[in-house]
């Protein structure tokens, strides 16, 4: 049975023993050598392929180009024990320091907001754990099996924290759960003793707590950089902890700690579910990926809009529509809906990062086009189309307690991230349609399986990578559990040099 760690604030006078601190409990989970179940191994491979798919599609996008340029400015000379790590797009012999590889590859994974998700008390993209874990595995000569164990730990810790502790309620960015989960995954990867991982978790948490303005108002490319930064500093935290350096303690429970001053305050308490000793780490199985390049809470509503496009094409005409009201959960309404009160969510000149967090925009375009594309659906000319702007301005959201309850349900059969749409026509007709989960969700109309992940990579890599490179990567990725250390360098994508050379890197300090 899972164990529950009760988390609350303690005054300094309590001298809270390490063994009673959440950071120590996380470190113990990381150190547990429990076997990885077959279904977890299968899903780890799926998510490695999924990350590669979105990476391929983002290789020439400006934030990724800039991050890659920063990484290559930090080359790592290979030695007998430390090899450096690969950078997405570049040849495997182009090695950089692992924290910078994690940085560049993390930005590439996150730039399009198109990989996996887990939503509960807070938000997360657990696939953000993979780039830093791969980088350190390559650097330290670990095997594919070692990496699979580490990824299972990273997912487990991030999901468990997200189940229990809301960061968003206090306007703290969700990557504050990612720093500790990466540190824990690295503890597993490197077989570190709990004492070292404990210090690394504390350092990683302390350095990754920031406000969520990165996902509010005028959203910039930092939305993609923030998770990569968390992975980078978690690697640095592990390095320091391995050298004997400590962290603020107790980092969660202290009277001037994260819970007391950044979350629910001195009287707060949380129950964090964690695997018991010897219990397998299976949290990755509760996560879900994206079929569409948009914020996860829009996935189901895109599918609903596509259905309405086929069934009621008249609703795509703003002259025939008086209003569109999306009844949905609290989080959807206040984060990507009109409840955010962000005028930028209705601005045709808004950034791509802003538009992919605007359900009024996303629903409008999916309804009119009957499809969704990671580039075309966000193109400035698409956002500025007069009939789109006219219909877009008529779309609002409202919180429905029933959908909020389903969002927070612990019952997988009840948990849902969709909503009910009511469209009132200019003739007075009210069209009502609803959807609970996205088509690609495990309980959806077309749940994603291995062929879907493979198809996603082939689709997003088209026109970017050579077909032979895609097939080479798929061969390596699908053999991940049995890869030797000298084969792990192949777990990267190599783009044609001409593709990358066509996008000059901006100059900076390095």
Structure write-up:
It is a single chain. This protein has 510 residues and is α+β, with helices and mostly antiparallel strands. The protein folds into 2 domains: 284 residues, Orthogonal Bundle (2-methylcitrate dehydratase PrpD); 140 residues, 2-methylcitrate dehydratase PrpD (60s Ribosomal Protein L30, Chain: A), CATH 3.30.1330.120. The protein is 44% helix and 7% strand. It contains 20 helices and 6 strands. It starts with a strand and ends in a 9-residue tail after the last helix. The relative contact order is 0.15.
Describe what is shown at a glance.
The protein has helices at 22-31, 38-58, 62-72, 98-110, 130-140, 144-164, 178-189, 194-208, 222-242, 258-262, 299-311, 330-336, 352-355, 359-369, 380-383, 386-392, 401-408, 450-461, 467-478, 497-501; strands at 3-8, 269-274, 321-328, 395-399, 419-425, 430-435.
Shape label:
globular
Helix tally equals: 20
pLDDT under 50 segments (min length 5)? none
- Report the order of strands and helices: EHHHHHHHHHHEHEHHHHHEHEEHHH
Distance between the termini: 50 Å
Using the CA coordinates, give the radius of gyration: 22 Å
Largest sheet: 4 strands, mixed
Overall mean pLDDT: 96
What is the beta-strand fraction? 5-15%
Enter the CATH topology name of the largest domain.
2-methylcitrate dehydratase PrpD
For the record, the count of structural domains works out to: 2
Domain MmgE/PrpD N-terminal: 20-269
Domain MmgE/PrpD C-terminal: 292-480
Catalytic activity: (2S,3S)-2-methylcitrate = 2-methyl-cis-aconitate + H2O
Pfam family, one: MmgE_PrpD_C
